[in-house]
């Protein structure tokens, strides 16, 4: 045993070292990730006179590479579309002695008849007002700079009419789905309206519970009377999360 220990002390055991190498893909930076979201449009920079500055002989292209990527801003612009409806006549019916049969190509109906407001223009005014909080009188100034002198009244009328014609049915359908959910939240918020006879008006907010897979948030404009909530939530049989406002007791 003593000899074995002496041998181990005299001849130390060497540790084996295993070298492991691997490659990994370098993660893209935030700037490159943003740039990749946009469709590229190549801009080629070529020599107008491809000749050698020394010997004056013609140069031969040997390659190209992208030196940088950048985003550009294209300002808004108005463009007039002329919808041309084409008419067609059936020659066979005419030659056979029948009355001439004229067929016209279908033309999509305008959002509002006899109005300067197209779908894209009205949608932009709604986005400006309700998403970016830009009032109608300021929008009027922007449209005038683009060459469209419309009034504040026209902008507001466009929004009221498209809500009545196209969005009200969607609102009521969402309301039916909302009151069938088991848990809802409700609250009323006062605010002041310019040029209004009433000192204050109210918006009621009704929304789904946070665990609902398809959350819905609806706004209802009216007075602060509890009957507003009772009418909106008629048929609701779940749990309502609200404050201690006495108006909810009417439900």
Automatic annotation (TrEMBL):
Transposase IS66 zinc-finger binding domain span: 52-93
Residue ranges that the Swiss-Prot or TrEMBL entry lists as coiled coil: none
Domain Transposase IS66 central: 115-250
InterPro entries per the UniProt record, alphabetical: Transposase-related, Transposase_IS66_central, Znf_dom_IS66
Protein name in UniProt: Transposase
Organism per entry: Lactobacillus crispatus
Upper taxonomic lineage: Bacteria, Bacillati, Bacillota, Bacilli, Lactobacillales
